[in-house]
Design a protein that fits this description.
single chain, globular, mainly beta, 4-stranded antiparallel β-sheet, about 130 residues
């Protein structure tokens, strides 16, 4: 049984930083084909924030977070991270990590993922 558990969400002021963690259990993240972070702001649909594609190890970021967010992993801890710097009020939302081990295809779409965390709340005040 694969489980993903996020942590690290908090209330911060604009310009601050947070690091979100996503601890995986039940299967190694080393072999994931797609791993991603998504977020959902109040009243909006969930959107792709960042994803790593095993095929070429490329990392894709939504334009609004490029240069501010960094997606990383610690294989020994079986954990994914999202370092978020220079946070803005528009970054407010519930952040979800996701993973999938099936090979093939892109990694930006929600439908691509079969395993999701429960979400962690990030609130950025102005």
């Amino acid at each position: 049984q694969v489980q993903l558990v996020e942590s690290g969400g908090d209330v911060v002021q604009a310009g601050g930083s947070l690091r979100l963690s996503c601890a995986a259990s039940g299967r190694s993240i080393i072999s994931t084909y797609c791993r991603g972070w998504f977020r959902q702001a109040p009243g909006k649909e969930r959107e792709h924030v960042a994803s790593i594609h095993l095929g070429d190890y490329s990392t894709d970021y939504v334009d609004s977070v490029k240069g501010r967010f960094t997606f990383s992993r610690d294989n020994a801890k079986n954990t994914l991270y999202l370092q978020m710097n220079n946070l803005k009020p528009e970054d407010t939302g519930t952040y979800y990590c996701a993973a999938d081990w099936m090979y093939g295809g892109g990694c930006k779409g929600e439908a691509r993922y079969n395993f999701w965390g429960q979400g962690t709340q990030v609130t950025v005040s102005s």
